[in-house]
Design brief:
The protein is mainly alpha-helical. It is 52% helix and 5% strand. The chain is elongated, with a radius of gyration of 22 Å.
Length: 150
């Protein structure tokens, strides 16, 4: 009888210890304590972008930003509001999506809202961000079918 009580007491102590450890882990995760970004941070976005795949010119390839795209991100970083006068198909949406993904992956609690002229266009931007996120950590040798943003 005494042996069973000791065994049960040991189980309860172990349970309480595990529970305390889980609670501590949950607290540090929810507050972002001890967070270490596994990717280049937003101030090094130009290093982050080539880690993802994008659809460009009908093919899927690594995102290698042009100088004008780097300047766009610099403007966004330095100014609260950025208005861009541009033509179509210059890669501004892809660039901004990549930047927001970089921040989401490296800043605990980061959130962003992307607006577009229609719900379908906004959904398309969401698909691009998800495709870029899915492409992280892949290479042409390890992934035969890179993600295909629609």
């Amino acid at each position: 009888m005494q042996g069973r009580l000791q065994s049960r007491l040991s189980q309860l102590e172990k349970f309480h210890q595990e529970r305390a450890e889980l609670e501590e882990k949950r607290r540090t995760q929810s507050t972002g304590e001890l967070f270490v970004a596994g990717f280049p941070t937003e101030d090094r976005w130009a290093e982050f972008a080539p880690l993802t795949w994008i659809k460009s010119g009908g093919t899927i390839k690594r995102f290698k930003p042009y100088e004008i795209q780097k300047q766009l991100i610099d403007s966004i970083r330095q100014n609260q509001y950025t208005i861009v006068l541009k033509s179509r198909q210059v890669g501004a949406s892809e660039t901004v999506c990549s930047y927001l993904l970089c921040r989401a992956l490296t800043e605990p609690g980061f959130s962003a809202v992307v607006f577009s002229k229609t719900a379908a266009d906004a959904q398309s931007l969401g698909k691009r961000i998800r495709a870029q996120a899915a492409s992280l950590g892949t290479s042409p040798r390890t992934r035969t079918n890179p993600p295909r943003p629609d």
